[in-house]
Write a structure and sequence with these properties.
There is one protein chain. With about 140 residues, the protein is an alpha+beta fold. The protein has a single domain, classed as Glutaredoxin (3-Layer(aba) Sandwich). The protein is built from 3 helices and 6 strands, in the order E-H-E-H-H-E-E-E-E. The strands form 2 sheets. A 4-stranded mixed β-sheet has the order 2-1-3-4, with helices on both faces. The two termini are about 25 Å apart.
Length: about 140
């Protein structure tokens, strides 16, 4: 079983997602996409498999989105994808790829939908919010 996470270690959501994956006992392939961005084709494929539009996969906050004119609704998906690959901070994160599918894991607990192995232990997000109980089960509202 291979799990790949397109990870930004500076992002709390990305760190929480990675920790939830590791809580299954699996060490995923970690791609620090800011250093090693996916190809335009790979990015297009991930976005499609996640059921998103290209615009839904663009990160606006804290990026040069507006400065680059990416808010121009006449831009094609290919132009947006090219900008995302050229400036990987524009790629929303974290994307996770498993044999069960692809998700943009915002919020981090969305990763639970595409993990085939159970959680092994209790898990709380960095902010202290409990997601998985001591029996490895989702707690409300995640259950």
């Amino acid at each position: 079983m291979t799990i790949t996470i397109y990870h930004n270690p500076a992002c709390g959501t990305s760190r929480n997602t990675l920790a939830l994956i590791r809580n299954t006992g699996v060490e995923p392939v970690v791609v620090e996409y800011l250093k090693s961005p996916p190809t335009q084709e790979a990015l297009r494929d991930m976005i499609a498999k996640a059921g998103l539009s290209v615009r839904q996969a663009i990160r606006e906050k804290g990026t040069p989105y507006a400065e680059l004119g990416l808010d121009d609704l006449s831009l094609s998906d290919e132009a947006l994808l090219a900008a995302m690959v050229a400036t990987p901070g524009l790629i929303n994160r974290p994307f996770v790829v498993t044999e069960m599918g692809v998700r943009l894991c915002r919020p981090s607990e969305l990763v639970l939908d595409i993990l085939s192995l159970p959680q092994k232990a209790a898990f709380s997000k960095e902010d202290g919010e409990l997601v998985i109980d001591a029996n490895g089960k989702k707690v409300a509202p995640y259950a």
